[in-house]
Amino acid sequence: MPAVTVRNLSLEVHRALKLRAAHNARSTEAEIRVILEEAVTPKTRLRIGSELAAFGKLYGGIELNHKRDLNSIEPAEFE
Question: Global pTM?
Fold first, then answer.
């Protein structure tokens, strides 16, 4: 798993991290991971399934009269 070292952290920032970690019942390292994950993860993610369902609802939907083929599939052969 990748690791990151942060050098030259001010004493105030280090204390604030330790305090925040204690407040959230986590280790300082775990708290830093949470902060970094929140910083790089988008607040709203585009979820394609939800978007397609909303699009279908907006335009009246569509009925698919398709039944799933339950027969087993033969594996491909490469020679």
Answer: 0.55
In tens digits, what is the pLDDT along the chain, a chain of 79 residues? 889 999 999 999 999 999 999 999 999 999 999 999 999 988 887 788 888 888 888 888 777 777 888 888 888 899 8
Structural domain spans, the chain: 11-58
Q: What is the CA radius of gyration of the chain?
A: 25
Buried b (16+ CB within 10 A) or exposed e, 13-36: eeeebeeebeeeeeeeeebbeeee
Question: What class is the 11-58 domain?
Answer: mainly alpha
SS3 per residue for 9-60: CCHHHHHHHHHHHHHCCCCHHHHHHHHHHHHHCCCCCCCHHHHHHHHHHHCC
